Amino acid sequence: MPELIHIVLVKLKPAVRSDESAFSTFVTKCNELGTYPSLQPLLTEFKWAEPVYADRTKGFNWALYSRFRHREDYEKYRDDEGHRTFVKEVMSPALDEIMAYDLEV
């Protein structure tokens, strides 16, 4: 059964990115997502990061790379109430645009 890689690219609102305190709080909350007890067993890798080469990102300035043992684990993660709350309360208010890309390897 192939593993699943889940990539999320985000264009943060300028107010979030330019305010050091707001961005720091946002980063902390993003990293906490990977420590949720309901999600941790599903993840084999979980990393948020800024781009290395910002001139090639078409404005996307924050990204998630996550890896799952198989599609079923990803679907549990996607449908998890903690994840859904994070998207609604942390991600959505902070972003201008989002793109997700999932692939099996």
Describe the 3D structure.
The protein is an alpha+beta fold and 105 residues long. The protein has helices at residues 14-18, 20-33, 71-79, 81-94; strands at residues 4-12, 43-49, 62-68, 95-104. It has a single domain, classed as Alpha-Beta Plaits (2-Layer Sandwich), CATH 3.30.70.100. The protein contains 4 helices and 4 strands. The radius of gyration is 14 Å and the shape is globular. The model has no long low-confidence stretch (mean pLDDT 97).
Q: Please give the domain count.
A: 1
Structural class: alpha+beta
Strand arrangement, largest sheet?
A: 2-3-1-4
Mean pLDDT: 97
Give the helix tally. Answer: 4
CATH class: Alpha Beta
Terminal Cα span:
9 Å
CATH A-level architecture: 2-Layer Sandwich
Q: Regions with pLDDT < 50 over 5+ consecutive residues? A: none
Helical residue percent band: 40-55%
* Residue fraction in strands: 25-35%
Question: Sheet with the most strands?
Answer: 4 strands, antiparallel
Anisotropy-based shape? globular
Q: What are the main properties of this structure?
A:
single chain; 105 residues; alpha+beta; Alpha-Beta Plaits; 4 helices; 40% helix; Dabb; HS1/DABB1-like; Stress-response A/B barrel domain-containing protein
